[in-house]
UniProtKB/TrEMBL annotation:
It comes from Linum tenue. This is Amino acid transporter transmembrane domain-containing protein. It comes from the Eukaryota. GO terms for molecular function: symporter activity. Its main location: membrane. Keywords: Amino-acid transport, Auxin signaling pathway, Membrane, Symport, Transmembrane, Transmembrane helix, Transport. Belongs to the amino acid/polyamine transporter 2 family. Amino acid/auxin permease (AAAP) (TC 2.A.18.1) subfamily. The keyword Transport applies.
Amino acid sequence: MIIFGCIQLILCQVPNYHKLSWISILAAVMSITYSFIGLGLSVAKVAAAQLNEGAEVTTTWPTVSEAQRLWKIFQAIGNIAFAYAYSTVLIEIQSSPAENKTMKRASFVGISTTTIFYLLCGCVGYAAFGEDAPGDLLSGFHQPLWLLNVANVSLAIHLIGAYQVFVQPIFSLVESSCRQRWPEVKFVTADHQITIPFLGGTGFHVNCFILVWRSAYVAVTTVLAMLLPFFNVFLALIGAASFWPLTVYFPIEMYIARAKLPKFSFSWMGLQALSLACLLVSLVAAAGSVEGLIQSL
């Protein structure tokens, strides 16, 4: 985690996120790589169990009560909700028609790909491990070691890119707000040219506020990750908190206002029913996540 934080300290100082677009592409490739590896190993485990004189593939979970099993199901719902949260890309959607069309195509491809991978890994992973399926699917395998190393390296690279995708909109929002609020403060607005020796006068611009603020953010999040290393539980909690308001409620209300749907019309009632159902999903996921966090602590 410390190494991860040090890498992010460097990457977060890039002033223009579009210069890091290659990281997003690399992260996507790495995600597909370790997903295929996990899927392939799960299929191999299921096949090996079937060839072993019809031995049972799935296992039982005798030490977990029905109530605990239900809490874990709620946590899993939160993990799924996190995968479909749109709040992290809202800041990237502009008003021009070209970008709207681009975002529609990107959303369709992204959601379709995500759904296929999650269904395959979830179903085949459950067939391989049953209720003993680990939070990190790859941790359930021990051989072949070289393939697992490739998968884990891919996972680490993916998370490095994912951190940037999540954090750069936050940086942009905070820094633009501070520049508007304190335009006369040089610490916030002034850039300083730093020349790199032996490179023919080549240099780069440094903003003191960006340097301090981004470094502090990375340091705090790294320390929190070390203090509370409960990845799946926090993932479910964040997903539960953001899924209904940002992915369901606000888009539906905006569509109703834009389309001028009359109250209690068929379309209006259908959308409200969808919103209510997703609210219930978020509530049960939040409850399961809080319970899981308490147990982890």
